[in-house]
């Protein structure tokens, strides 16, 4: 395959991940069985694409994407022809950027949509000929985007396990077992890349003793979830976990019910981040997949955001779940392209995790309840290994 990505305009004002774009085009061509063919993709400004639009389509002004196929593949696919040069795709970065902002998407997300659209035009799909053909092309675009979401990321997402519920069982009897510290060791031996605990103000499960012992025994990475209360901040500064995640906290909630509203708590969050940074502790903010919250997270100096996946996991219909997934995917790209590192978690289980794990912009998943409940039936070691198997990237190729 020969894939040429050409940039005829300055891309510095835009948050474009060229490696991500190249990877996606490569996988798209693979899915379309045109991996042995040649495609050139040219990114330009509105002025240049307007010139092509006027010259070849007799239409004034810029457009988002233009395709110029070398051959005619209508009714067939290049795999049954000897033609190796598919053609050229022209994309206006300026128009794509405007459209992304209007739809509250990342620029990379919008460029991916346009690349799919352009590739299908090279293969003879045409949405302007009839409603049936437009429907066919639209369905194919959705199919390809869905395949991208499930296709192989080259680097495996990390799994961090929350052991709060082990402590919940212990506290229900007011005794010393089961011990979340021991559980954390089993999780690490089974392949977990990190341990997560939430030290709540009411100490309903994890206790101060647990956090201190975990700091001494965890060999991977200890992530302390916490509210922005002085008492818990002081403990974090004393214990010095590998990172802290700031979360909202309500005494009556069974578990964290939503993301932290960074915008309305900006001053307090900013002060907490400054204290943690001074102590050398990176901070993650547990937020809903929302562009405004992501921007504020960047403004206050967070290192990570952890995207709340609860609504995606709790969706009662496939349509609702797809919509929530899209919000997570777009938010992850927005956060990634602003320089934030991206994690995700809450409510993920053995049915909902794989799709999130396939997102290239997410580094780590935080999962607790599903693994601990599964361990009741198969043991903690096996429960962790089963989840690890779900998040491994699939093998590439046909």
What topology does this entry show?
Blueprint: E1 2-7, H1 18-31, E2 38-44, H2 46-57, E3 65-69, E4 85-92, H3 93-102, H4 107-122, H5 131-150, E5 158-162, H6 164-173, H7 180-189, E6 194-198, H8 208-217, E7 222-226, H9 230-239, E8 243-246, H10 266-278, E9 283-287, H11 291-299, E10 304-308, H12 310-314, H13 318-337, E11 341-345, H14 353-357, E12 364-367, H15 369-378, H16 380-391
Parallel strand pairs: 1-2, 2-4, 5-6, 5-12, 6-7, 7-8, 8-9, 9-10, 10-11, 11-12
Antiparallel strand pairs: 3-4
Helix pairs in contact: 1-4, 3-4, 4-5, 7-8, 15-16
Describe what this molecule looks like in 3D.
The protein is an alpha/beta fold and about 400 residues long. It contains 16 helices and 12 strands. β9, α11 and β10 form a beta-alpha-beta unit. The two termini are about 15 Å apart. About 0% of the residues have low confidence.
Give the CATH architecture of the largest domain. Answer: Alpha-Beta Barrel
Name the CATH class of the largest domain: Alpha Beta
Instruction: Find the CATH topology of the largest domain.
Output: TIM Barrel
Q: Spans with pLDDT under 50 lasting ≥5 residues? A: 73-81
With helices defined by DSSP (H or I, 4 residues minimum), what is the helix count? 16
Tell me about the largest β-sheet: 8 strands, parallel, barrel
Radius of gyration in whole Å, from Cα?
24 Å
Please state roughly what percent of the residues sit in beta strands, choosing from under 5%, 5-15%, 15-25%, 25-35%, 35-45% or over 45%. Answer: 15-25%
Mean pLDDT over the residues: 89
